[in-house]
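thread from #wetlab-drylab

HS: before we spend reagent money on co-crystallization trials with coenzyme a persulfide, can we at least see a predicted complex? here's what I'd submit
DV: go for it
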Amino acid sequence: MNFELTETQSLIVKSAREFVERELKPVAAELDREGRFPTEQLKGLADLGLMGVNLPAELGGAEAGAVAYALAMMEVARGCASTAVTMAVTNMVGEVINAFGNDEQRENYIPRLTSGEFLAGAFGLSEPGAGSDPGGMATTAVRGDGGFILNGQKQWITNGSKAGVTVVWARTDTPERRLGNKGLSCFLVVAGTPGLEVGKHEDKMGLRASETVPLTFTDCFVPESALMGDIGAGFKVAMMALDGGRIGIASQAIGIATAALEAAIAYAKERKQFGHPIADFQAIQWMIADSKTELEAAKLCTLRAAQMKDKGAGRFTREAAIAKLFASEAAWKICDRALQIHGGYGYVKDFPVERHLRDVRVTRIYEGTSEIQRIVIARSRLE
Ligand code: COS
């Protein structure tokens, strides 16, 4: 086991941290307040190679690996959680195309995602009636002349209207012979394709500068070349992409919690009650100690899963689920304690912890709820 960072990993962390201090932290509260998509900031991330951290250099990626990606995500989320989720989904889309796309798809899409020509990518798996159970989705792709015709609706799509390309899952089995999760296939749908309509922006509790929309497909024709991977193999593509995605969300949760803990420590040193900074009181010290301990444990779980991914020695499904479950649940508690340390000031928008608490909540839900992570972990022990 090696806890030292490589030169490349250190460089990625350093450039992400500098960017966050200079470009993200100063504007994060404003982006949240105005619900403004971080267009300029994303271009800055692309210039640093952070829109394709674990993608090949020949396709414009940083080729720095999954550990470097997790560390970069922690830094970016420490500055602005909304920008971080936009970056996370774009990296995930680049990686899924790299892993499952053919050469033409890789060369067509990945350089545009990594360079920032495409502001973002999107991942179209969930539906109004299929969240935790993607095998029950209803969107269909029926073979037509020279391609497929998509019909259906996708829900909770991060970057939905901003994405140059969206990975869309649809049923390619027939109504007469439904095949459950073996009846799904995967398509690359470019922005502006006729029949693809973006719905109303969700008015979310947190991550308000990120975009979440439904997408509707009405007789939406995509050419044969849009099919990614084999017919019927889409479920496994989604699961494998989510294994990596969950490391990203664990890292996002850690970044948000780090910012909350930093804010709590600064406030505790400054705020005086009973003639002392509240940091002198053991009740506050214990909260800080518990938060720091949980944060370090979350980082270890997350970097272990990322290291397994980097080694490429097989599935890291359970480790990614452990990281996502532990980091998101711990981050929620850390943000709550940070708010508690701020007292009444934590409950108003003048201090950042209120935003951190709102932002972190969804990490226990998206890319697989905590309950789904527990299923994945338990199954891996019981099988
Ligand atoms: N990597 C590779 N293959 C995987 C896999 C993974 N991570 N997870 C499952 N598979 C394979 C299984 O090995 C199985 O293959 P075989 O049929 O060849 O044996 C197949 O996929 C079906 O797996 P399983 O029976 O476990 O599927 P379930 O329908 O029971 O679903 C869970 C399993 C619940 C884990 C899955 O549906 C899930 O992760 N749901 C949450 C989805 C999610 O995160 N949604 C949020 C969307 S993004 S906001």
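DV: The two ends are 28 Å apart (CA to CA).
HS: ok that's useful, forwarding to the group
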